[in-house]
TrEMBL record:
Catalysed reaction, written as an equation: Hydrolysis of (1->3)-beta-D-glucosidic linkages in (1->3)-beta-D-glucans
InterPro entries tied to this protein: GH, Glyco_hydro_17, Glyco_hydro_17_plant
Pfam families named among the record's database cross-references: Glyco_hydro_17
Keyword line: Glycosidase, Hydrolase, Signal
Molecular function as annotated in GO: glucan endo-1,3-beta-D-glucosidase activity
EC number(s) from the headed UniProt entry: 3.2.1.39
Signal peptide positions on this chain: 1-25
PANTHER family noted in UniProt: GLUCAN ENDO-1,3-BETA-GLUCOSIDASE BG1-RELATED-RELATED (PTHR32227)
Family that this chain belongs to: Belongs to the glycosyl hydrolase 17 family.
Protein name: glucan endo-1,3-beta-D-glucosidase
Amino acid sequence: MTPTSALWILLFVIMAMSHHSEVLGANVGINYGRIANDLPSPKRVIEFLARDLQYKIPMVRLFDPEPEALAALSETNLVVSLGTLNEDLSQLASSIDFAREWLNKYVTPYMDSAGNGTKFRYLTLGNEVIPGPFAENVLPAMKNLQQAVVEAKLSDYIQVSTVVSAGVLGSSYPPSTGVFADNVAGIMSDIVKYLHDNNAPLLINIYPYFAYISDTEHISLDYALFTSKQPVVIDGEWQYYNLFDAMVDAFVAAMVKVIGSEDIKIVVAESGWPSAGNEPYSNFESAMTYNNNLKNRIQNQGGTPRKPDLNLDTYIFALFNENQKPAGAEQHCGSFYPNLSKVYPLW
Ligand SMILES: *[C@@H]1O[C@H](CO)[C@@H](O)[C@H](O)[C@H]1NC(C)=O
Ligand SMILES: *[C@@H]1O[C@H](CO)[C@@H](O)[C@H](O)[C@H]1NC(C)=O
């Protein structure tokens, strides 16, 4: 083969790859929750992800700024989504100085304006606080923290957003009817417009498990676990083989209605299935099936039926079983035990 023909083949391969970019996969990360009294130190946990697991899990979400974890992360290439405590929301909303202090305490010590250090990607204001007493604080807090990020010259690396549950939707079935609920419609539409102006994603928590256990008569386990061989829901031109896609596309529909175009971005901040605590629905088999299918689905194809180019980065819930969460299934969402052995094969 001549060098020239090799070059042409290379060009062809690159063009073919970019042509198919809309069906390329997205990344799968993990939620590192710490509501437990028997977990390894944050330093050991970060080392476990980076060294023991060799970055098989490349992204990690922290619910609050834990200094030891943030420092340990700066020695790794793990991509980090960092939440603020809900209690800090009102001050973040009311004071740009407090937002600057927050950033200077938890972010700038670990990441410089060349992007070296901890690879922060998202800072999330509030986890599932809409609707609720903190809901009005979310957008003002996002604006203040965004301004602080810009001032610190970190806006090339970091996007500011919030995390919402499917509870913000008033309708989600069929997916194209997705719309924000009346009691949050004003707040959500302002947030979605702001995110769109900043080219940032909305982070959503998507739990087919909860939808399934609330209506096992009408929702099939196959549809919830990604194991259906046939489309279960047909919504106009879109066919749904699994509930996860349908729930995400309900968000797509709601967001598209707000901004009037399909140009929206979403990240799944949480999804998972418990391995115990609510039998018969929670068990090793279902947890293993759901989480493995979710992971493969996202890694192979990061879009949805309605929006194949969505590039839906997803954080599985969760890294560990957490023994101080409310009793029941919530304590059994981990893919690892506190002693770092696997609950079931996933990674
Ligand atoms: C920061 O990153 C830049 C660009 O990658 C590199 O040239 C520089 O040496 C890094 N600085 C430090 C202190 O690591
Ligand atoms: C880790 O903890 C689990 C759950 O308590 C237990 O079943 C398993 O045997 C432990 N593994 C090791 C290596 O100690």
